[in-house]
Design a protein that fits this description.
Enzyme class: isomerase
Structural class: alpha+beta
Order of helices and strands: EEHHHEEEHEEEHEEHHHHHHHHEHH
Number of strands: 11
Main location: cytoplasm
Distance between the termini: 18 Å
EC number: 5.2.1.8
Shape: extended
Largest sheet: 5 strands, antiparallel
Subcellular location: Cytoplasm
Organism: Streptomyces mutomycini
């Protein structure tokens, strides 16, 4: 077999392949054997029909077609390996010559990963939020805990803001009561904003047994988005009483003996959260700067597939779970279809660039993923999927997705390398040291995943290459 590679552009090549006919022998034998098992000829047992009879009865052309279809993937893969190409997706194949007994010649056009020159990233400098916890934030955290331990006491008076009312609801659209528009015994805190718009005004001032009607746009159900006439009846009113903020509350709501200890613990928790947010912010901004520095040609077909995959996932998975269609989603977002498609394309470009650059950096820095890192990543992915680690691991193995998980962690390690080389300062002008963060690789992996978004199209291209 002879092959030649012609570069059509930085992301696409054409392979020209010539195969001497004798190299098709195995595929021809397989073609005759397959046809033998599929056809019946009077006078011959099934599977024992001579090749010449098959040629006479069904045509040599049918045998050649079967043999060529069997042989093409093998010779294409050999040419790819010989040319040391990093192909993406399935090739567009064109048979240019087929001479029985002499030669098979064909071309294959396919997308390839572009060659990327990793820029000097040592000069990257980003600014992040300072790690500050205010007394107001501590007060808010303690107050939220206090709210969880609030008690309710029935009262015989008109309902007011902050009270908990038990209500019955009935919604009508165009004068008809909706099948899913009736609810009884609903508990609602006035002012929480957790139910329909207008309900706070309707129930405020009502005593038990009181009733009111208001108009509101339905947030869910069969008539979502439509204006409905809603009748609300208050069946009970209860006041909410918050515990006193003292040492007794600290002992009731936590493992601490004093309110001061509880507040200190809240401060530490807030500090840890802000430290995580600060690290994530640093990684996101460093990645943005890295993407600006590198020139990355994007394969057109890969981009088109990526955009289509993102749109499909949004329409048929995410929006479907929320009971929305694309039109309603765009209305809620205040976007036109053109704006949505432009944003989707920009996100897809960013995701592909992120993968290409970080994969190249993984190769350049010779980064490896150890079992502990892979296990930690698998555990987090399992938690976010709602599956047990064992179930998730089994699904990953059965789906052949282990290389994909390894790639995710490797790209996280690559980003961590860039972040370590960058200068990160906070809004107070202080240098931020992220080296003490034990979870830096996993945090960087999460940042990379967020930047890549739905990268199924890209991952499928890799799977197709592996299958070839």
């Amino acid at each position: 077999m002879k092959s030649a590679v012609e570069t059509l552009n930085p992301t696409r090549v054409r392979l020209s392949i010539e195969v001497p006919f004798e190299e098709l022998k195995d595929s021809l034998d397989a073609a005759y054997k397959k046809i033998n098992q599929q056809v019946t000829v009077k006078g011959f047992r099934k599977g024992k029909i001579p090749n010449r009879v098959i040629d006479q009865r069904f045509g040599r052309g049918a045998v050649l077609e079967e043999a060529v279809n069997d042989a093409l993937p093998k010779f294409y893969t050999e040419a790819v390996n010989e040319g040391e190409l990093n192909v993406l997706g399935q090739p567009e194949v064109d048979i240019t010559e087929l001479k029985d007994g002499e030669l098979l010649a064909f071309t294959a056009e396919v997308d390839v990963r572009p060659e990327i020159e990793i820029p000097d990233y040592s000069g990257i400098e980003v600014t992040v939020d300072a790690l500050e916890v205010t007394d107001e934030e501590i007060d808010k955290a303690v107050e939220q805990l206090r709210e969880r331990f609030a008690s309710t006491n029935p009262v015989e008076r008109a309902a007011a803001e902050g009270d908990v009312v038990t209500i019955d609801l009935e919604a009508k659209v165009d004068g008809e009561v909706l099948e899913d528009g009736v609810a009884a015994g609903v508990s609602y805190t006035i002012g929480s904003g957790e139910l329909l718009e207008g309900i706070d005004e309707a129930v405020t001032g009502l005593e038990a047994g009181g009733e009111a009607t208001f108009t509101s746009e339905l947030k869910g159900g069969s008539a979502e988005g439509k204006e409905a006439e809603v009748t609300v009846k208050v069946t009970a009113v209860a006041s909410r009483e918050l515990p006193e903020l003292d040492d007794d509350f600290a002992q009731m709501a936590s493992e601490f003996d004093t309110l001061a200890e509880l507040r200190e613990d809240s401060r530490k928790r807030l500090e840890n959260t802000k430290q995580y947010d600060q690290a994530t912010q640093a990684q996101e901004r460093v990645l943005e700067e890295l993407l600006k520095l590198a020139e990355v040609p994007i394969p057109e077909k890969l981009l088109a597939d990526e955009v289509q995959t993102r749109k499909h996932n949004l329409e048929h998975h995410q929006l479907g779970q929320m009971g929305l269609d694309l039109e309603k989603y765009l209305e809620i977002q205040g976007k036109t279809l053109e704006e949505f498609e432009n944003e989707t394309s920009e996100q897809a470009v960013k995701g592909i660039k992120t993968q290409f650059i970080l994969d190249e950096l993984v190769n350049k820095e010779k980064l490896n993923v150890n079992q502990e890192e892979l296990t930690e990543h698998l555990m987090r992915r399992a938690q976010s999927s709602g599956m047990s680690p064992d179930q998730f691991a089994q699904a990953v193995v059965e789906g052949g997705q282990v290389p994909m998980l390894v790639g995710e962690v490797a790209r996280g390690k690559a980003l961590a390398v860039v972040v370590e080389a960058a200068k990160v300062i906070d809004t107070n002008g202080e240098v931020v040291d992220l080296e003490d963060d034990e979870d830096v690789v996993e945090e960087a992996t999460e940042t990379v995943e967020a930047a890549e978004g739905d990268t199924e199209a890209t991952d499928e291209k890799k799977d197709e290459k592996n299958e070839a």
